TrEMBL record, chain A:
It is a multi-pass membrane protein. Gene3D superfamilies: MetI-like (1.10.3720.10). This is Carbohydrate ABC transporter permease. Belongs to the binding-protein-dependent transport system permease family. Residues 91-280 form the ABC transmembrane type-1 domain. Pfam families: BPD_transp_1 (PF00528). It is found in: Cell membrane. The keyword Transmembrane applies. The keyword Ribosomal protein does not apply. One of its GO terms (cellular component) is plasma membrane.
TrEMBL record, chain B:
The keyword Nucleotide-binding applies. It comes from the Bacteria. This is ABC transporter ATP-binding protein. It is a peripheral membrane protein. GO terms for cellular component: ATP-binding cassette (ABC) transporter complex, substrate-binding subunit-containing. Residues 4-252 form the ABC transporter domain. Keywords: ATP-binding, Nucleotide-binding, Transport. Signal peptide: none annotated. PANTHER family: MALTODEXTRIN IMPORT ATP-BINDING PROTEIN MSMX, OSMOPROTECTIVE COMPOUNDS UPTAKE ATP-BINDING PROTEIN GGTA.
Length: 295, 391
């Protein structure tokens, strides 16, 4: 009698990895197929971006797509993006703007959310109604009045003008309010009896409990403003104040669109976020599931 | 000097009147329980005393001073909450010391980082630590000081909450249903401990509960609230023996008092179909007869030693060992539940089934009388015909 040992044979980790893709049933196989399709739809633009960043402009227009360029100019494109322009300045600008926005958003939203969630005052319901209603106003509606105001006070092309419209995040107020509402009232009462002021209740009790919500919102806010192109395009006039996202557009003009460099630029602008994502993946996912909104 | 005095406290939430003008005094060092069904306003009243809620009108006096405008921390009160309300991310020691830190350190010394270098914080830290330790020792929780609330059992959390309240040395100790989250055995134990704590500290206690047993066993006096009104404020024994109204009689005592609807006309009272022996004095129309479960006993069919003897149908027997509870109905009043508490199982019960006809006997002087609205008829009585004839 021969014993079939092939099943028990120790497999390499690579083979085990491949074997994990083996569908357990037909339905499972179909499901995996759909997931691969979905993943491809999401990833393909990035693949295309990478591919285009290695090509000269005319080849980007080519009707036939080759992942590897026929004329390789990747070195030229990336050199230009990284060294012919102040790439680090753009990164620093983006960092300053994102951090500034986030700090002010937290400073304004946390007390507001606490008041709406836990304090009883006349008109709190109506105020909260206004907060929710203003979630529906897109920035495009308010951008022109804000722009005109910034022109009047002569603050265009400053960090302040880049951050100003986002200082109060209605979304943050809403998110934190929902989170704070679950905090037990009796602990807040106990703190009042112990002599905490309302601010100290926020700092010593509510915030430590709300760290997951704050972290999730921070991810959400930083990603949104790192990638923002619309508002920087309106208020930035000089290269010194350009954010990373805006810097991509330097290679676009009426007469000459250098798509190779544009996509090389897009790659290096996206890169920091991708790296951060790899380190803080769980936080990202939590921020998306918690907010119920896909970033 | 009154430990606490309330003068005509009123409070409404929206259109609901929660407290309808409450006034009473508590002596210094007294243990008073506020009892009532949920929604009677007892917790709101406690919050008003603590300053967490402001009354619409009326005055709160603590130790003789009007405290209406004072914030909770300035009233020199301590409060223990139903769910203990411990700060979840702080250790037991931090939980207990928080009040002292808040009361004694100036704002800058409480800030993170600064509190490490501030001289006042450095000087006070050992003082605070020793006070926390003293309280922990008193409550036998020294070994828990470094744990977090999540790592403690219900009873231990309860002790920490007591410790947090004790460390203040308050004038007034407020407790909001502190035992309701504990299991039955622990509840009896902590009940005893709170009573001992009251005796050893001599503080004024106000204790809110919906459990009449807690109120009766722990307090000097009990205030029974219903729908925002004070029904009766009296010692536990007075509440039990001498209730002002049928609502008080119903609430106090377990098993519940028996309420028997009677019809009285020209001195003759009827319980359902049965005529009551003796003459009804100072009663008329629909009247309620109330009888504590232990005031009734099982009698033999031919027994004539009690004033009343009524047929009884048993539905359920609860044998608790030291006593037996019978639930059923009187044959004369098949719609009304009748409960009996017997000191031990009776010979008359042995060998009987639920179908066996039983007889209940009780005496007229054990009955309490109420009018149809539930108000006590104090001068009402059932007078035996024979004794009257003898006079």
């Amino acid at each position: 009698m021969t014993v079939t040992t092939s099943i028990q044979k120790p497999q390499s980790s690579w083979l085990r990895f491949l074997a994990s893709f083996k569908p357990k049933s037909l339905g499972d196989g179909v499901g995996t197929g759909f997931l691969f399709l979905g993943a491809w739809l999401i990833i393909f633009p990035f693949v295309w971006m990478l591919s285009a960043s290695l090509k000269p402009a005319d080849e980007v227009y080519d009707s036939s797509f080759h992942f590897w360029p026929q004329t390789f100019v990747g070195d030229v494109n990336y050199y230009g993006v990284l060294f012919d322009q102040p790439y680090l300045t753009f990164l620093a600008n983006s960092f300053i703007v994102c951090a500034g926005i986030l700090v002010v958003q937290l400073v304004t939203a946390v007390p507001a959310a606490y008041a709406l969630a836990k304090l009883k005052f006349r008109g709190s319901t109506i105020l909260f109604g206004f907060v929710v209603a203003s979630l529906t106003i897109p920035i495009n509606v308010t951008s022109i009045p804000i722009y005109l105001g910034l022109v009047k006070v002569g603050l265009l092309d400053t960090y302040f003008s880049l951050m100003f419209p986002f200082f109060v995040s209605v979304f943050a107020i809403f998110l934190f309010r929902q989170f704070f509402k679950d905090y037990p009232d009796s602990i807040i009462d106990a703190a009042r009896v112990d002599g905490f002021s309302e601010i100290e209740i926020i700092l010593r009790l509510i915030l430590p409990a709300a760290i997951p919500a704050v972290a999730a919102f921070s991810v959400f806010s930083v990603v949104a403003h790192w990638n923002d192109l619309y508002w920087p395009l309106i208020v930035v006039q000089s290269q010194e104040k350009m954010t990373a996202a805006l810097s991509m557009l330097q290679y676009q003009s009426e007469f000459d669109n250098d798509y190779g460099r544009t996509f090389a630029s897009a790659t290096v602008v996206t890169l920091p976020m991708v790296v951060i994502f790899l380190f803080a993946r769980r936080l990202f996912i939590r921020s998306i599931t918690m907010s119920g909104i896909k970033g | 000097m009154a430990g606490l005095e309330l003068r005509d406290i009123r409070k409404s939430f929206g259109n609901t009147q929660v407290l309808k003008g409450l006034s009473f005094q508590i002596a210094d060092g007294e243990f008073l329980s506020l009892v009532g069904e949920s929604g009677c306003g007892k917790s709101t009243l406690l919050r008003i005393i603590s300053g967490l809620e402001t009354p619409d009108s009326g005055e709160v006096l603590i130790g003789g001073g009007v405290m209406n405008a004072a914030s909770p921390k300035d009233r020199n009160i301590s409060m223990v909450f139903q769910d203990y309300a411990l700060y979840p991310h702080m250790s037991v020691a931090q939980n207990i010391s928080m009040l002292l830190i808040m009361a004694r350190l100036p704002l800058h010394a409480r800030l993170p980082l600064l509190n490490r270098i501030s001289p006042s914080a450095r000087a006070l830290r050992p003082v605070i630590a020793s006070e926390v330790e003293a309280v922990a020792k008193q409550l036998r929780i020294e070994h828990l000081l470094n744990r977090r609330p999540a790592e403690l059992s219900g009873g231990q959390r309860q002790r920490v909450a007591l410790g947090r309240a004790l460390v203040r040395h308050p004038k007034l100790f407020l407790m909001d249903e502190p035992l309701s989250n504990l299991d039955a055995k622990l509840r009896v134990e902590v009940r005893k401990e709170i009573t001992e704590l009251h005796q050893s500290t001599g503080l004024t206690f106000v204790y809110v509960t919906h459990d009449q047993t807690e109120a009766m066993t722990m307090s000097h006096r009990v205030a029974l609230l219903e729908k925002g009104e004070l029904l009766q404020l009296a010692t536990p024994s007075a509440l039990y023996a001498d209730p002002h109204s049928v609502a008080v009689a119903r609430f106090i005592g377990s098993p519940e008092i028996n309420i028997l609807p009677a019809e009285v006309s020209s001195g003759i009272a009827r319980l359902g179909a049965e005529m009551v022996p003796g003459r009804a004095v100072n009663m008329d129309g629909s009247t309620l007869f109330a009888l504590r479960p232990e005031a009734a006993r099982l009698v033999d069919r031919h027994d004539v030693s009690t004033d009343f003897k009524l047929g009884f149908t048993r539905h359920l027997t609860e044998d608790l060992g030291h006593e037996v509870l019978l639930h059923g109905t009187l044959d004369a009043l098949p719609e009304t539940r009748f409960r009996m508490r017997l000191p031990k199982t009776s010979d008359l019960l042995s060998g009987t089934s639920l179908d066996t006809a039983l007889h209940v006997g009780f005496d007229a002087n054990n009955l309490l009388f109420f009018n149809a609205d539930g108000a006590r008829l104090r001068d009402a009585a059932i007078v035996a015909e024979a004794s009257e004839a003898a006079q």
